[in-house]
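My current task is to audit a protein record that another person submitted. Alongside the sequence sits a line of tokens, each denoting a local backbone shape. Please read both lines and tell me whether the tokens look consistent with the sequence. Do not assume that whoever made the record got everything right. Thanks in advance; the entry in question is below.
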Amino acid sequence: MTRDIWAYKLTVKEHFMEPRAEADCLVAQSEDADRFGEPWLPLAQRNDAPGKRANPGDLFVLVVSPGKGEDPYAHSVATVAEAGRLPPEKRPSALKESKSECFIRFRHVCPVEELEGYEEMISELPNSWDPARWKDGQDSVHKLTKTSKTSESASTKHSAEPTGPPEPIEQVALGAEGSFIGVDLTAGTWESAMDGGKKPFPAVELAGDGNRLRFVAKRDFETLTAFREWVDERRPTRLMIDGPCAVRGASLSAGRNEWVYGEMTARLAERRLSADKIPLFWTTEGTLRAFDGASRWIARSLALFEDLERKDGRQALETYPNGVFVRLARSHWPGMRLGKKSGSDGRGQRLALLAAYIDDVQDRLGNHDDIDAAAAALMGALVEVGEVDELGNVDEGGIIYLPPNP
């Protein structure tokens, strides 16, 4: 198999996303494409736009140019699904108003740190690979290969999947007591004032007896109202939500049918996650305007946190299941990459990590949304026994709770 390699440079632009935030969002969207859609990027508004003739399977290195005198760097590598001109009716909803008519759709975006064979891939380029030469200028696309000469060995190594099954983990007795519920929210709809969504969302309940955790139940919910009623019945010791507890500089309208924008800035917790090589959707204006699915997911999460606190008098905490799994994997399998959660290897790894802490869990979970909900519930038990890293603070956008790094 042969394919070309391109570079897509993301730069600081007025009234748009910070380049690192944009690249993180593309990785996060790719990881959860069935919830947020496949990631896209626009190409230049011209007939001979660079990248327009990219073929499915070609690789794009996403180069982040941070500005402020910092050198650009390779952030992630994306595999092309399609490229070229698209009529407005076929464009992603977030790009319908774009002046560009040409786009790239990616079927997978992988952080460079997790990419097996990246160094070999770059070393085979006919031109020297130096992102620093694109320090100045606007967003741009560069073709790095003169012809399709990427070797079979290099091109087939573009994969986030690990090799071989995970090593067995010794069972862990956390010593937590109580009931722990985790929820993996889906995007809401503006028409329902964020109560409903196009897709149900799962919640998982675990119980601890002072020794091991055990699986109790998994439920799917169509509305926030139904979920809150169930939580009121269950009265958990800890309630963990996969979704932002706050944003900085924006709010939902009184009718919860649109965003009200102010002077938005990124949350400290999100910057810390990104610095720890855990990409996520940043809650910035660029995300809210450019990523429709993520925007409605963030809005629904804010609505749920608000309703639980103001209407039900119940405290919930924010967590990030992908970060939970990444941190646990670092502790139990040093040096091993987590596979994509929608793949068989990635699913097996995540179930093995859960089974290390929870009895009777591996055959009780369906898709990866269920697995994420279980990770959120597990994080509640970890918080209860003090095995926790609190990222951020209340004054700078709220706290995200994750396991500590090893």
The chain is about 30% helix and 25% strand. The longest helix spans residues 292-310.
